[in-house]
Amino acid sequence: MREVEADDRCPCGTGEVYGQCCGPILAGDRKAPTAEALMRSRFSAFATGDRDYVVGSWHPDTRPRRLTLDDELDWYRLDIESSTAGGPFDTTGEVTFTAYHRNGSLRGSLHEHSRFTRVDGAWVYLDGTLES
Questions:
Q1: How far, in Å, are 22, 66, 94 from residue 91 at the CA level?
Q2: Global pTM exceeds 0.90
Q3: How far apart are CA 93 and CA 113, in angstroms?
């Protein structure tokens, strides 16, 4: 978990600054325009330890009752491998990604194919399948 300032590079890997990328989405100042943007904002939420955003961006039917984020994990890189649908005029979308983390000298990654849908016009994470 790390602190990110508005003029720091966004954790999601777009190359933009946090204050113009995921920061306003996590703060609730704007909605993610695409499923991929929601995926990126969720990664940024994991990277910054924003549990409330992670839970709030999860579909109510699949949201876990409790969620604990591991403060020892440093989520440091996100690679979007593919994105299907999930655009401004779509109602569903899919994103395949690899998220990289470290804990001290230990390194790991999470490879997932995620599904997204809209609820009341806003993109939400529906579910995902871990891939090897």
A1: 21, 27, 11
A2: yes
A3: 11
Two structure tokens written together for 105: 């000298």
| CATH code for the domain of 102 | 3.10.450.50
Number of H helices and E strands in the chain, helices first, is: 3, 4
Contact 123, 38 (CB under 8 A): yes
- Point out the residues of the chain with pLDDT beneath 50: none
Alpha carbons 26 and 44: distance in angstroms, whole number: 8
8 within a domain of the structure (yes/no): no
Q: Which two tokens stand for residue 42?
A: 């969720």
Tell me, what's the pLDDT at 1? 67
For 33, other C-beta atoms within 10 Å of its C-beta total 13
Q: Is residue 105 domain-resident? A: yes
- Residue 93 and residue 116 in contact, taking contact as beta carbons nearer than 8 Å: yes
* Residue type, position 18, single letter: Y
pLDDT at position 53, please?
97
- Structural domain boundaries, residue 45: 18-130
Tell me, rounded to whole angstroms, the distance of Cα 11 from its chain centroid: 10
Instruction: Report the domain count for the chain.
Output: 1
